[in-house]
Specification:
alpha/beta
């Protein structure tokens, strides 16, 4: 098995390849990729993602737009005036109530899903999309739901989700312990072996 540093070092050459940016996978599936990693490397991944974005811009002229799912949640709640209300609601009614209320406020999985809309409104001019913050945004949103819903708005750019857990080509296991729904439409960005 490749160590995490070797796998990270393979990301830039992979995404710089013009074929990768054609955004077609096997069977002409759209280019959704997952870079899974042991959650203990979360801080390393955060640091390296920033480096890859900067290096891709300087060396290859690539415009990578990163979306941290947790930051998107906070931005949406702030813009709607819900963030402070959530803090008060949690004190009065508990975390489970706030979790459900937050999911409803974000309209997750609906046609007017605010997370999907937020991303769709900001992808213009990008060559590649990075999704981060998967672990931080759980349990409000799951990786399966995000990927599944983004299929309807991302067609031109390849998308890479940095996933703290395991993806085996069919199932997502967040933190290597929490099984999400099966997801077969993404490709492994960098092989582990």
């Amino acid at each position: 098995m490749k160590d995490i540093h070797k796998r990270i070092d393979e990301i830039l050459p992979r995404i710089a390849d013009p074929y990768f940016r054609q955004n077609k996978g096997l069977g002409d599936e759209i280019g959704f990729y997952i870079f899974d990693y042991d959650p203990k490397y979360e801080l390393l991944i955060r640091d390296r993602v920033k480096f890859i974005e900067e290096k891709a811009k300087k060396a290859y002229g690539l415009n990578i737009i990163e979306f941290d799912l947790y930051d998107i949640i906070l931005n949406i709640l702030k813009s709607k005036g819900y963030l402070e209300k959530n803090f008060e609601m949690e004190k009065k009614k508990g975390s489970k109530y706030v979790l459900n209320a937050t999911k409803k406020a974000l309209r997750l999985t609906l046609k007017n899903d605010l997370m999907v809309g937020y991303i769709a409104d900001r992808i213009g001019g990008s060559d590649i999309i990075f999704l981060t913050g998967v672990g931080k945004s759980w349990p409000i949103i799951g990786s399966y739901g995000v990927l599944n819903n983004l299929h309807r708005v991302i067609e031109k750019q390849p998308l890479v989700m940095f996933f703290p857990g395991t993806y085996d080509g069919g199932s997502l296991m967040l933190f290597n312990i929490l099984k999400d729904d099966n997801y077969y439409r993404a490709f492994q960005l960098i092989d582990k072996y």
